[in-house]
Amino acid sequence: MDAICDDLTAEHADLDRIVSSLSDEQWDTPTPSPGWTVRDQISHLWFFDQRAVMALTDAEAFAVDAKQLLSGGTDLSIAPGRAVTPSELLDSWRQDRGALIALARTVDPSSRVPWYGPAMGARSFITARLMETWAHGQDIVDAVGATRTPTERLRHVAHIGVRARPFSYMINGREAPTAEVYVGLRSPAGELWEWNSSDSNRVTGPALDFCLAVTQRRHPNDTALVIEGPAAVEWMSFAQAFAGDPGVGRVPGQFASS
How many other CB atoms are there within 10 angstroms of residue 244's CB atom? Predict the structure, then answer.
């Protein structure tokens, strides 16, 4: 657990570096997520870091809260951030993400944690928080034109993206095919990361581009990914690494120059 907690801490720090330099006006910059500002992206992370602590400490309370949240009809995660100043939001996010990390370091990695879909292993649960932090951080990077250097932490995001293939089909109301899809990605440091085996269905290319695609921060057409075979093409058209309903994603050409 310490290793993934260290990586999540580093991901938090990298995003903190970007938002802490923004003016109050820049916190209200629209992001590529329709209707969401920079402030809303951080509010969302703050809100679900709090829910993650609840899920780790009180499963019954989390179940009640989750039912209320899922029946709310609107995304309640952005409301708290809109009710405070940017500096208050940043301080609160720092405090609660720190509490999550401290708690996660004490958790049995083999324990199961409830969430908004199937329960998850504790290590995978914290890995998912890293994926969320990175993905919503990308919306902020795109909105304010910040520079963020890709790191080997992307392996966590890529791994969730690969393993979430059956979920991508389920959440889109489709039957998952039996055919495997080989995924071979070149890491920022030049390593080759591989999953599965297949000669006919393959996704290859930069790890960054795969992570952007499976978190729906880039349309696959706006990446350097090579997608071969019917099963691979179908999957990557709606691949989703995050829990919840399918997102609106990005349209082809939106980030063609990325």
Answer: 12
